Amino acid sequence: MLGKLLGAVTGDAGRIEPEALGERFVESLFPGETVLAAFRTVRDGFALTDWRLMLVNRQGVTGSKTEVVSIPYRSVLRFSLETGGTLELDDELKIWDRASDAPWSFSFRRGGGAAAEAHRILSERVRG
């Protein structure tokens, strides 16, 4: 319980059902596209599908403006998983793609297994 509360305050990602990423995300899926896993922070989130990485970026004060970024796995240049140490409460997944200057970064609650799951799926998909 405390971990979920801390995650909500700090924005740490956790595994969710894909529909929880919102209507705009669901509308952006191709017919027949399969969501392998979805993760959410307080406002934003991302999903790994059988074809691409999809980022959901909520903007504005109310978060009603939504941007869905699509990154095909073939555009991923590299990625890393940094696990939390003794005093850190989170793991961090970073993903570099061809179009961005800086990596996309996602924090996960340490010990929940979500970071390792996202890293594993990303590894399988980038490998081809």
From TrEMBL:
SUPFAM superfamilies for the chain: PH domain-like
CDD domains per the UniProt record, alphabetical: PH-like_bacteria (cd13225)
Span of domain Bacterial Pleckstrin homology: 7-111
Any Pfam family: bPH_1
The protein's name: PH domain-containing protein
